[in-house]
Amino acid sequence: MKAYLILEDGHVFTGKSIGSRKTVISEIVFNTSMTGYEEVLTDPSYSGQAVCMTYPLIGNYGICYKDQESLRPYMDGFIVHELSRVPSNFREEDTIQAFLKRYDVPGIEEIDTRALTKILRESGTMNGMITTDPDVVPDKVLPEIRAYKTGNEVEEVTCTEKEFWPATDTVVGGITSPAYKDADPEAPVSGKRTGRTYKVALMDFGVKYNIIRSLNQRGCDVTVYPAWTKAEEVLAGHPDGIMLTNGPGDPQDCPGEIREVRKLYESDVPIYAICMGHQLMALAAGFNTKKMKYGHRGGNHPVKDLETGRVYITSQNHGYVVDTDTVDPEIAEPAYVNVNDRTNEGLRYKGKHIFTTQFHPEACPGPQDSAYLFDKFIRMMGGDQ
Amino acid sequence: MSRDMSIKKVLVIGSGPIVIGQAAEFDYAGTQCCRSLKEEGVEVVLLNSNPATIMTDGDIADKVYIEPLTVEVVEQLILKEKPDSVLPTMGGQAGLNLAMELEDRGFLKENNVRLIGTTSLTIKKAEDRQMFKDTMEKIGEPVAASEVVHSLEHGIRFAEKIGYPVVLRPAYTLGGSGGGIAHNENELREILANGLRLSRVHEVLVERYIGGWKEIEYEVMRDSAGNVITVCNMENIDPVGVHTGDSIVVAPSQTLGDKEYQMLRTSALNIITELGITGGCNVQYALNPDSFEYCVIEVNPRVSRSSALASKATGYPIAKVAAKIALGYTLDEIPNAITKKTFASFEPMLDYCVVKIPRLPFDKFITAKRTLTTQMKATGEVMSICTNFEGALMKAIRSLEQHVDSLMSYDFTGLSEDQLIHDLSIIDDMRIWRIAEALRRGIPYDRIHSITKIDIWFIDKIARLVEMENTLKSGRIDEETLREAKRMEFPDYLIAKLNGTLSEDEVKEMRKQAGITAAYKMVDTCAAEFSAETPYFYSVYGGENEAVSTGDRKKVLVLGSGPIRIGQGIEFDFCSVHATWAFEKEGYETIIINNNPETVSTDFDIADKLYFEPLTPEDVENVVNVEHPDGAVVQFGGQTAIKLTEALMKMGVPILGTSASDVDAAEDRERFDQILRQTGIPRASGGTVFTAEEGVKVANELGYPVLVRPSYVLGGQGMQIAISDDDIREYIGVINRYTQEHPILVDKYLAGTEIEVDAVCDGEDILIPGIMQHIERAGIHSGDSISVYPAKDLSDEIKKKIETDTRKLANALHVLGMINIQFIVYKNEVYVIEVNPRSSRTVPYISKVTGIPIVPLAAQVILGHKIRELGYEPGLQPEADYMAIKMPVFSFEKIRDADISLGPEMKSTGECLGIAKSFNEALYKAFIGAGVRLPKYKNMIVTVRDSEKEEIAPIIKRFENLGYKIFSTRGTAKYLTEHGVHAVPVNKIEQPSPNLMDLILGHKIDLVIDIPEQGAEHSRDGFVIRRNAIETGVNVITAVDTARALATSLENTDIKTLDLIDIAKILKRGNRN
Q1: Are B464 and A61 a contacting pair at CB < 8 A?
Q2: Does this model's pTM top 0.90?
Q3: Exposed/middle/buried for residue B707 (C-beta within 10 Å: 0-12, 13-18, 19+)
C-alpha cells in the first residue's frame, strides 16, 4: 500500500506503508545512527516526533525484545529507505514490520531519506503528516500540519507509579522489575560494582532503561519516580544520589518539573542529569534553553571535556539546547562543548555535587565511550567532589 | 595547537614493489601522507623502491629515493639526508619491519632520529605473537586459544591439546604468507614447516579454529592526547577462514545489532589505547554468530588495505589524518576535509552501503587452485557504492572485468543437485555464483547457510537478485519491474538479454519514457547531517540527483583503469592521475570515473569530480548524461579505458588524442600490416586465425617456434610460444574458453633482443625520453623482463633506426599523445612486435629515470601544444649518465599451483628500480630491491633444456667461481662437467631419494635455475621443482638471460656503500615545462 509523507513546506514523498495504516501529524526529525533502530524506536524522548533513519538498510537484525529501551515505541512514525525482508541475527525474535503493527506505529519506506534529511537540515526540523489516504490533498492539510505542536510529552511517557530496580548483583526482598527481567543477561555491560550499594532516586522524564541498568550494574538500587513526584517525597527516601533522566519535548513546557528540580538543586544530594534532565536543571538554575535548527540525533557527536581537553564520541538525541550565553558563571560553568557546533554539552554546578550532560552516557544506541560518567556519579555519591 | 614544531624533516618509508598482500593502497596512503606533511611545511624525504608509484614523484616529496628497502639503505639515507624523524606506518609491513630492525640495532637512537606515528613498543605489542597475546590478556580482550611455536614438535603437541583443525599464522609476513588451516597432523607438518621458514623470526602462531564465525573489522584512530574514534567497521560476507583481502566485504556491517556493534567498537578502542598507537589501526574480529562471544584475530598498527577501503567507503582520509597526528595534532584540531565545518574527531555515518570484491588472478594462473584460505591471493579489488546491497553487489561484480556481469556469469546449471550441494562447501572465488544457482534450484536458505556459514541476510539478498532474473525472464516487463531491476543495478543489456523480446535500446527507451534514470548521491561522511561540497559521487536509481554540471570551464572525462591485476597495475593509475593534473593545469575541469579503492585516482581531491562507478558503457553513459564532458581521454587508463572508446563515440563524446580508428588500426592485423607495408617496417611474419586448425596451418607455413596470442589484450594475456601442432591446439583451446570477438595472432618467433619505447607524438614530431632494452630475449613478456635504460647493447645506427621507425609509426597511426612500441633487434635488423597508441607499463619508470614528464606532455599535446613549444627538441633525448634497471617482482609463493616459469604471458605483480652510475651497481640494487639477497648457503640446482645447455655452461661456471656448489639432474650435470663446471648429479624427483626434492626441502639451497622446455610442458617434474622451491623461499630463475644478469650482480656484491640517487633532482632537470 502506498503511503505519503507531506511536509509543512509542501514537499510530498511517496513511498510504501509500513506498520500501522493510521494517519499521523508529527514533528519530523532524522537520526544518523547506522545500528540501533530498535533502541531509537523505543527511546521515549521521540514521543511527539516521527523519525527518519538516514542509514538506508533498516531491520537487518530484526527485533530483540530485550533490547527495548522502554515498554514500547513512543514515536509517532518511522521513516526509512528500505526495511529488510529477512532479518537475521541470533537474538532476533520478531520483525520490525510486526513490531510497528503491534504498537500501531505508522511508517513509510522506499522514499529518498537522504533528500528528506537535506530538507530538514536546510530548513530545520518541521512538521509533517504520514498517511496512506490517497485522497489527502496536501494544500488542504498544510494548515493543520503547520499547527501541530508537541505538548507536555513528559506526561505521556513517565511511569505511572514508583518502581524499584535493585542492583544487578543484589536481590532485595525478591523484587525485580519486569523490565529488568527482560534484559539480556548475556549482553555486554558497561561497568561493574566497585564499592557499596547506593540508593539512587531517579526522576523519570522518559527514561531509557539503560540509564537504570547502567546504575544497577554498578551496584545501585534505583527507585524510579514518576515525573510529577514532589521533591519532598523523593528526598524523604534519603537517596545517596538523584538521577534526572532524558525525556521528550520542549523543557520549557515542564514548569512543574522545573519547580521540583529547583528543590532538588537546593538539597545537598549529589545529582547527575542527562539530556532533558540537564536542560531542566539549567532552567531551574535560571538559565535558558533554545530550540536548535535540526538538533543532534545519532551516535557520532564529538564532545570535548573542557577540563581535560579529551574528546569523546557520544550518543545524542536532542532538539533543544542550553543557551551557553545565559549560564551564570557564578552558578555553573560549561563542562563539555560540542566540537562541531560549539553548543553546550554539559554543566558543572559550583559549590554543588551536581553535574549534567546533554549527551547520553548510557548509549543504547551508540558509543559507550562516556559510560565512565556513571562511575563518576558513583564516586560523587561516595563522597568525591 | 599541539603541532610538534621540532619535526622539520621526515623520512617516509614506502612499501616497495607491488606484491599480493601489499599493493597500490600504500601508494594511496603514502601519497596522501606526503602531501599532508608538506602542507605543514615539513621537508619530506621519501624512500620506496617502486618507480611505478605516484608517491615517488618530485612534486609529492622533496627528496625522492627509489632505492632498495633494506636496513643498510635506510641507514645510509639517514646519514645522508639527516631527517629528524622517520614515519614508518605508511609502508605496510615492509615499512614496519624496517623500522623495527633500525630500532633493534640502536641506529635511530645513536643518530638522534625518532620514530613518529608509532613506537617500537607499539609495533612489538601488535606484531609479536606472544606480546600481542599478553597485551590482549592484560586488558581482558579475548583471543582464540593459541600458542607461539618455534618448532614442529611444539606445534604438534599444542594442536593435540586444543584439537584439530588449527590455524597457522607465521609472524612478520605479508598477506598471511605461509599460513593456513591444518585439519590433521600431516597437514600441520607441511604448513607449519613452511611457515617457520618464511617467518622472519621463525615463529608461527598455532590457534583454535574459529572458521565460520563472522569476520568483522574496525578501523580506528587515536591521537597523542588519547582521543579515539572509529572510522568505519566492515563485515566480511565470507566468514572467518578466508583472508580479508580475498573476502567480499561490506561496509558498514549489516547483520550486527547495536549491542554487538558497540561491543566490538569499544574493544577496538580499548586495544588502540592500550597499544598506544598514534595514528590509524585496523582490528580484526571473529564474532560467534550464535552468541556475544568474540575474539581478536589481529591488529595492524598502521595504514593498511582495509584502511584504504575504509577511507574510500566513508570519505574519511585516514592516511592524511594519521600524518597530522604524527606531527602532534589532536583529532579535534584537524578539519574534516569533506564538510569543512566539522573536525576529524567524529565518526563517519554512511547513508549507503559499500561492497568490495577481490580481483583474483586465476585468469592468469589457470593451473592454480582457486581455493581461498587465510593466505591472500588477490592482486587487487573493486569497490562499489549504492543505497541497497543488491545494487552494490551487482555494480562490484561488473567492475571486476573478469567476464562477469551478474550472478549468472559462472554456469553451474550442469551440476546435479547433489553435486551442487556438495560443491557449496568449496570456498573459492565462485562461491556466490554457486549459492545463486542453489537458490535457483530452490535449495532452502538454512541448508545453504549451514554449509557455507554465510549469513542468511546475504543469502536473501542473493535470492532477491535471482528472483529478479526470473521475473525478467518471465515475460513482459512493466514499469515497476524495470524500476526495481534498475534499483538492483541490472544493466540494460542484461535486462534485454534475460527478457529476450526487448533489445537493449528498447529497454533504454522504456526507461527514458518512465523517467528511470541514474541519480548521483554524494559521499559526505555525515549522512547529509551537514552540507558538504565533496565532489565524490555514486549512482542510484530512484531519488534526487545531487551531481550538477557546474562551471564554465571545458570538461574532460578521464577513465581510470579499474582493479589492479597482473598486466594492468598501478602504472596506469600513475598515468591517469598525472593526466588529470595536467588537464587541470590547462584550465580544464576534470572528471574521473574509476572503481578501485586502493588507488590515488579515487582520492576525492585528485580530480574536480570523482564518480566511483563501474567502467562499463552504460555506467559511463550515465555520468556523461549528467556531466556532458567536452571530451574523454582513454589513452591513460590501460585496456579498461581503451575498451570504452567505441561506446564513448556512440554517446557523442569526442575522444581526445589519437582517434579510435587509429587505435583500432594498431590492433587490427590487416590494417596494421597495411601500415607496416606503407612505412616499410618489417615484423615477424604471421597470420590471424580463429580456430586451432587454422592456427596449425599458419604455424606450419611459418615453421616452429611460433608465438600465439589473442589480439586486443593487455599484458600478453594468453600469449604462448608453441613448438608443435599439439601446443597450438592446447593454447588456442585455452584462449577460446571465452568467446573471442577478435582473431588470434600466430607469428614467427624471433629470439632477438627486445626493445621498448614510449613516446609522445604531437601529430608531427615525436619525443622519445629513452630506449629501454630487455635483458631477457623476446619470448618473455616485456612486463616480466628486466629492463635497462639506456639500452646498453645497441649501436647508434640501430638507435637511430628505432627513433625513425617510432616516428614513422606514430605518424602513420596519426598518434596524438602517447605511443608504446616494442621492437625486436634480430641479426642487426629492427622488427616491430607491437604498437600500442596509449600509455604503457613503462611510462612511470621511464619518466622518473629520464626526468621527462611524458604523461603531462602527452596531455598537453592532446590539447594542441607542440613538443617544440613545450621546451623539448623532438626525437630521441640525450641519454642519461647513469643506468636505471627495472626489475620485475613476482608473488608466486602466494598462489598455490601457479606455474612460475616465465614466458610470453605476464606473471609479475610489481617492479622495483635499481639506479646507479654503473650497470653492475644498478643491477645489484635491482636484485636487492626485488628481495634477492644472495648468497646464503652457496648451493644451487641447475636443470636446463638441451637447447640452452651450451649457453648456460659459462654462466654456471661463474656461479661456481663465486663459490657455489652446483647440483644438477644427470643430463645437465654430465654436460656441465664436460664443459669444465663441477656439478654434482642428483636424482630426478620420481627417482629414489636422495633426489632433487630432498635437496630443496633440506633448506640449504639458494637458487634454482630451471630452464623448461619450450611449448607445453608435459612432464610435471619441472613444475613440481619450481613450485616447491618457491614455496620454501628459494629463488627460482627460468630464463638464461636472467641467470646471467644475476651472476653479474653477485660478482659485484663487494659494493659496500651504495650511491643513493635523489630522483627529485633528475625530475627537476628533465622537466622544462
Answers
A1: no
A2: yes
A3: buried
